[in-house]
Amino acid sequence: MLPTLGILLTCQLIGEAVARTLALPIPGPVLGLALLIAALLVRPGLVETLRTTVGVILANLSLMFVPAGVGVIGNLDVLSGDWFALLCILVLSTILAMLAAVGTFIGVRRLTEMRRA
């Protein structure tokens, strides 16, 4: 489990360092995830090394939302004052995320259909 966590945290650390050093508008963990995907493409055997630990992490993913929930409860005064604006932003961002997912799906489907033909 420790080597797997080391790989995951190293990818995140490198992504964070690159994002901060180059002042990129992309979060470091996202760059770290891209680095991890690249590493998995280069070394397919790494998948089996990561599989067990990643399964445990995903099984307990709900625990990661506890700090966010505590933050929301701690800032109820902000929520009560700006609830309408926050609701509008939440609805709009959800719609945009869904449109981005649909666009990505359509784009990938077109690319895979072009490769088959």
Automatic annotation (TrEMBL):
Compartments annotated for it: namely: Cell membrane
Species assigned in the record: Marivita geojedonensis
What Pfam families does the record tag this protein with? Answer: LrgA
Q: Which GO terms describe its cellular component?
A: plasma membrane
Membrane topology term reads:
Multi-pass membrane protein
- Name of the molecule in the record: LrgA
Main location per the UniProt record: membrane
Transmembrane residues, as ranges? 29-46, 53-72, 84-108
Classification via PANTHER family? HOLIN-LIKE PROTEIN CIDA (PTHR33931:SF2), HOLIN-LIKE PROTEIN CIDA-RELATED (PTHR33931)
Ranked from the top, the taxonomy reads: Bacteria, Pseudomonadati, Pseudomonadota, Alphaproteobacteria, Rhodobacterales
Q: Which InterPro entries match?
A: LrgA/CidA
Q: Does the keyword RNA-binding apply?
A: no
At the top level, the lineage of the source is: Bacteria
- Cite the entry's keywords alphabetically: Cell membrane, Membrane, Transmembrane, Transmembrane helix
Q: Does the keyword Transmembrane apply?
A: yes
Signal peptide as annotated in the record: none
